[in-house]
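#structure-requests
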Amino acid sequence: MTESLLVPFQYEYLVKAIWVSALIGGVCGLLSCFITLKGWSLMGDALSHAVVPGVAVAALLGLPFAAGAFVAGLLAAAGMGFIRTRTVLREDAVIGVVFTTFFAAGVFLISLRPSSVNLRTIILGNILGISDGDIRQVVLIAVITLGVLAVQWKDLVLYCFDPQQTRALGLNPTRLHFTLLTLLAATAVASLQTVGACLVVATLVTPGATAYLLTDRFGRMLLLAGGLGAGTGAVGAYLSYFLNGSTGGCIVVLQTLLFLAALCFGPKHGLLGRRLSPAPVTTP
């Protein structure tokens, strides 16, 4: 029994998939805390799909997919920020327009030369077939993202809570806005190999939302979300071997199950946890 549980570790591609999934899941979990506080779940969805034309163009030019996806993500983020600050449109409308435009452009470009890139790989991911070059790109993106968060997490938290207070304290909310967008775009690119464009938004939102239900302290929320993201990434990749199913799908299902558990049994914000907790004793 024990030997059968260790079988996945005998395959090099599965070992790579497990630790790379854990790395990406941890980074996404940390970033999801800021997205949850800022209310940017739709932004994560938009950027995860907006990178598709970048992948298509990179394939046509013979460039690394990550480079094209990152440029497309930055262009989409800049476009959404520009339209939002220059027009009276609401943010959800701007996100919807840019998201659908970029995604449609990507599908169109891929249809011109369908043999140059596998659309299924972009949409659903292919962590089991990740190359050493892609792993290096993922690690580089993860290191840069973690470095920026380590240096500026307090400024980003303040910006997510109150942009006006951020400006009053002498910080530049516009710079912080585009910093967060850039990190979001980079992380979406890194997640493409693991869960694909369709499921990136889940890894960028669910761990933070789960941690938000479990604690009111942001520092603890970061630890919980990062741990949940890394843990579900590793366990999901491991279980996908035995289930013979999609690795990305398995990771996201695990994250969803943990979210539902927190939603029901969270000690303070859970639906059942609040009912089961003893009522506070009041003194006359």
